[in-house]
Amino acid sequence: MSPKLPIKLLLCLVIITTYSCQLVKHNQVSIHNTATLDSIINTYVHKGYYPCIYARIENSKGKLLYEHSSVNTSLLPSKNIDGDTWFRIWSMSKIVTISLVLDLVEKGVIHLDDPVTKFIPEFKNLQVAVSENGKPIPSLTFDEINSACPYKLVAVDSVMTVLHLINHQSGFYYAVTGKSCLDSLVASKDLPTSKNSQEYINRISELPLILQPGSSDFYGTNTTILGFVAERATAKELKELIELNITTPLNIKGLQYSLPPDVTLLPTFSGKDSLLRYAQPGELNIYGQHLPDYDPSHKLYLGGEGMLATAKGYSSFLRMLLNKGRLNGVRFLNKKTVEDIHSPHTQLNNPYGYNGYNLWISGDSMRINQSGDAGLWIGGGYEATHFWVDPKRKIVGTIMSQMSFAKPEGYKRDDVIKGAIYQQFWADEKKKK
């Protein structure tokens, strides 16, 4: 018969066992084969697909699990790219703006079913462009595409709401629809050169929508308009709102509007003609001829594409989402709100996943293709910035560069890098079973 163990020792054993089980339960992960990942990232740079790549993975507490930087020294001589390098993040701004607005919804300042004209009455006379035979332009088949131009205008037959802006269902679009009559019209307004949000609103209110609000979803400047709604609802500039509500209380460094003092942004690069080079003026044509200038004196803050971030700073914001609305001991969003962000909202019949609030939630295909896993929250930006949140393994990841029009092989970058990461995870998880 074995001797009885002291009560204190038994309690210790229970605590240790429970803690060990929690480690397995929460799937704490590590990146141990860094050489393979480093080699993959280096290859994308050394073969001329990207001017630089910086990859970073953190756990939910901000512990660095992996980072690697690779730089084309011919294009960027003596340039150090790391977690503190500032990047133009473009559409990675969208989920920040959406989170801000959802915070204002929690506070009762804005309601999701509020008409957009409640805040922006300049939109009361908007019209919708349809094909000559009256079809919605986004619904045109390949054989019907030529009927998009010239278009005709019809009246708006539904109420555009704040929720429509969040879900890209309001009908605003970029100058890259592939319909020349619409793209040239957007470009003619030169929206990024507007001196402030009022001038931007005045200019865009002269453009037709591309669909009836609420009828479907079409990716565009909807989130920028959402940012202007937040400004009108609070009588504060979007830059101030982000600082007051997000970055200051959550102690996030490296996420902001306007260029920080003494910082020079990376140049714009292009691989449009299969040669990695500096981009020509107007080549990055999402808005037409001009891009956001990030000048601190320019009081135009684009909620859909205008923010700057470091990989460290953006990872901190992602950890807030991962931690169900909390960061650094401060609650920003309620748990239910974060659940709404990654719940199904649009693209519900897509076999590869669905859209939450401007987050792509991956389906089983990523696991099948070994390019990630199901249930990842994914997003990115116009100049090859990319992020994901893995709620199962409690990690966030960023892959940062500054590049447009990559070669076909270059477009596989994020899937290949994530695939190598998740193959390590799967192998480790198999061993634990």
Mean pLDDT: 93
Q: Note the run of SSEs as H and E.
A: HHEEEHEEHHHHHEEEEHEEHEEHEEEH
CATH superfamily of the largest domain: DD-peptidase/beta-lactamase superfamily
Number of domains: 2
In the CATH hierarchy, what is the architecture of the largest domain at level 2?
Answer: 3-Layer(aba) Sandwich
Runs with pLDDT <50, length 5+? 13-26
Number of helices: 12
Give the N-terminus to C-terminus distance in angstroms: 33 Å
CATH topology (fold) name of the largest domain: Beta-lactamase
User: What percent of residues adopt helix (DSSP H or I)?
Assistant: 25-40%
Q: How many strands, which pairing sense, and closed or not: the largest β-sheet?
A: 7 strands, antiparallel
Q: What is the CATH domain class of the largest domain? A: Alpha Beta
Strand content: 5-15%
User: How many beta-strand segments?
Assistant: 16
Please state the structural category: alpha+beta
Question: Would you give an account of this structure?
Answer:
The strands form five sheets. The protein has a seven-stranded antiparallel beta sheet, with helices on both faces. It has a three-stranded antiparallel beta sheet with strand order 3-9-6. Helix 2 runs antiparallel to helix 12 and helix 3 (93-106) packs parallel to helix 7 (222-234). It is of the alpha+beta class and 433 residues long. It has twelve helices and 16 strands. It is globular. It has two domains: 27-99 and 238-432, DD-peptidase/beta-lactamase superfamily (Beta-lactamase); 109-234, no CATH class. A hairpin with a 4-residue loop joins strand 15 and strand 16. The longest helix is centred in the C-terminal third of the chain and has 20 residues, at 413-432. Helix content is 31%, strand content 14%.
